[in-house]
Structure to design on (104 residues):
């Protein structure tokens, strides 16, 4: 009885410790290999745009290393800078939702 209970407990503990590893993935791209955390959907805020700081944070998650300029248009933030290799990069971020529109 004790042996089967111990085996069941060890199996449950093993499955519980493996579960967090399923929530991550690897991305292989021009910036090398990186670990990608799952995106947490942010609740929609009516009438409120994301801040410039949040737009820079989104651009950094796309691989931007240093920020040179942030332009604001009616519908998007355009964050310009360089990646880790020194290549110029431009990330367009939607002002309402914070989603990436394009990466150039």
């Amino acid at each position: 009885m004790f042996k089967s209970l111990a085996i069941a407990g060890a199996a449950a503990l093993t499955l519980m410790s493996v579960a967090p590893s399923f929530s991550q993935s690897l991305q292989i791209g021009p910036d090398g290999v990186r670990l990608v955390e799952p995106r947490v959907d942010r609740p929609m805020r009516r009438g409120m745009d994301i801040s410039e700081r949040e737009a820079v944070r989104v651009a950094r998650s796309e691989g931007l290393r240093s920020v040179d300029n942030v332009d604001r248009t009616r519908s998007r933030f355009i964050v310009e800078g360089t990646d880790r290799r020194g290549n110029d990069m431009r990330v367009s971020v939607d002002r309402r939702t914070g989603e990436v529109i394009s990466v150039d």
Summary: The mean pLDDT is 82.
